Amino acid sequence: MRRRSRQAGLVLLCGLAGVLASDAQARAQGPVLTGVSRNNGPAAGGTSLTLTGERFTAGSTVSFGEAGAASVRIDSSTSITATTPPGTGTVEVTVTNADGSSPETPKGQFAYDPAPSEPWLGLNGNSSNYLGPVDAFVKHDIVYDRSGPIEWIAGELLHENGHLTSEASALAADLKEGMIPVITIEYRGYEGEYAPDPRFPTEARGSRSLEEYVEGFLSSASAILTAYPGRTILFEPMNEPWGYTKPQFNGAEYAAVIAQLLPAARLANLPLSSIYVAASGKHWISQMYKAQPSLQSEVQGWYFHPYGPANGSHEEDTQGIQSLPHVQAEMTSGQNNIIVSEIGYCAEDVNHGSSCGGGSFAHGSEAAQALTESLDNAVPYHEAGWLRALLVYSRNDGGWAMELHHGVLTAQGEALDAFADALKQPLHFLPFGSPQVASGPFEGRGGFAWLERLAA
Question: pTM for this one?
Answer without folding.
Answer: 0.84
